[in-house]
Amino acid sequence: xxxxxxxxxxxxxxxxxxxxxxxxxxxxxxxxxxxxxxxxxxxxxxxxxxxxxxxxxxxxxxxxxxxxxxxxxxxxxxxxxxxxxxxxxxxxxxxxxxxxxxxxxxxxxxxxxxxxxxxxxxxxxxxxxxxxxxxxxxxxxxxxxxxxxxxxxxxxxxxxxxxxxxxxxxxxxxxxxxxxxxxxxxxxxxxxxxxxxxxxxxxxxxxxxxxxxxxxxxxxxxxxxxxxxxxxxxxxxxxxxxxxxxxxxxxxxxxxxxxxxxxxxxxxxxxxxxxxxxxxxxxxxxxxxxxxxxxxxxxxxxxxxxxxxxxxxxxxxxx
Length: 319
Known about the structure:
Strand content: 15-25%
Helix content: 25-40%
Order of helices and strands: EHEHEHEHHEHEHEEEEEEHHH
């Protein structure tokens, strides 16, 4: 059974990142179609019983969900030992970091794709870099650590900022993760020539800051490196396109509307919300989940002639 669960709490977002959704947004789910707090808790409790040890809350943008701290508190009550984290654009963290920490959140991952104000605004369609960086500071003050900073790298856009992000890691102690551009954008403008291989970024950083592999105790999607001179922070590379890690992936996902996915790029989903609301017991839900996990495919086939894009974009699946 997989041990890493991603739960999307909402499909809405206050940003409009170019690699994720159109400028005008997407058709949002009706309120009643989104999983309720008690439904999120029930599914998480069942999956923890089946072996899940990490739960990451995603979106859309999870901080725009009004009951987020309440959801966090309910999930923390399931098991004090699970790793409970949140992926966010950071825009609202200056006011939410403290309450989320008090509710039981362990740490945060903050998306930030450029350290240049004009480029950040171009990529997110929001002039909000200062607020996001303030969110990093607020997360550190609330001890939502170790903080990770996700940077989606797009060729010809932000790929020359790798060293600047390494400097951010050294200055803040965060782990900056460079993520290869994947075909999950709602506009379907992805092309292979805009993918910057992780190896290229690693060489650029090592030319300035020599790196050494970090010791990792469990499989992770990122190849993580620390700075050879002992500086704080680290850099990681998620090479989803050029160096797929499908054979070691241990992630499963639940979308905001209660669909179970065994892979980010899955073309099929298993409905859990419908059966749950129709009276299914935990045994029924467990059978649905086990069947879906057993049918997980070997890999996503990006770049191959038979690759099929998922029917939903990243914000609709959950990051």
